[in-house]
UniProtKB/TrEMBL annotation:
Gene source species: Cylicostephanus goldi
Any one GO MF annotation of this record: flavin adenine dinucleotide binding
InterPro entries cross-referenced by the UniProt entry: Aldolase_TIM, DUS-like_FMN-bd, DUS_fam, tRNA_hU_synthase_CS
Name the UniProt record assigns to this protein: DUS-like FMN-binding domain-containing protein
UniProt-annotated catalytic positions: 118 (proton donor)
Pfam families: Dus (PF01207)
Amino acid sequence: MTKEDQPLDRRKTKFYLAPMVRYSKLAFRKLVRLYDVDCCYTPMIYAKNFLESEHCRSSEFSTTPGIFVSRLKAMNISILPDDRPLIVQFASDDPFVFGSAAELVYKYATGVDLNCGCPKSDVRAKGFGSFLLNRPELLADMVRQCRARIHDPDFTVIFLLFFSSRMCKTCDDDLPDLFENTRTVSSGKDYRSMQKGRNGFHAEKAGVSHLTVHGRTPSMRCEPVDYDAIRIVKESVSVPVIANGDVTQRSQALEIAETTGVDGVMAANGLLYNPALFAGYEYTPASCIRDF
């Protein structure tokens, strides 16, 4: 077991726990925060159910402020980590519902994420996840609705999307008009020569504050992550970008950040196998097991 010697306060790249159904709940979030995870996501929550059902709200969303010993509170020292920063991920195709659900969690979270990347057939069949990439104007409307309901510039609104450099090699009509520079790439043009990606988000103008990019298209579920595509997105937008996909070691995460220029790196399965990976541990340390 090794731990890389790089203090958190000297590290520019932020580390994220990805949204995972059943797994990225409060207990696991509290654990990974002890091992250099800077920001956590909740599992995906269906916004309509969350809005309409108290049972759904109580079972699907839980968080906690830090718990203080009275003598330590004055020094702002917590004996139980605060579950912040926290991003609540919603699945929705309705601007009003998404905005209303975001309003419900506003006091308890740092921000919300609209899932427009999930490739699972059951999610797509409901019009959620990566299906939303076919409806760029709806995506922008959902962000605007959220911003109209929550007048707080510090409240984060994030999109999680799938994107591959293959999309840059298709003709213009093959790719939904999600990015501003839709006419900068012609059929067959090498995406590596692009100074700007063809996808500077309409949603960025609508108020998205971060983008999380999984470097695959929805159909590339088992293929290697396309880090060139992530770099293209980073170069095309002004908001912070988080890279997602196949991260299993801290050194790998830092290399991805250096290669793509992203502001943060996200892990899912890698943290399930080793919750301490972002702290530089090659294998799960005994202390991590005790902490859980």
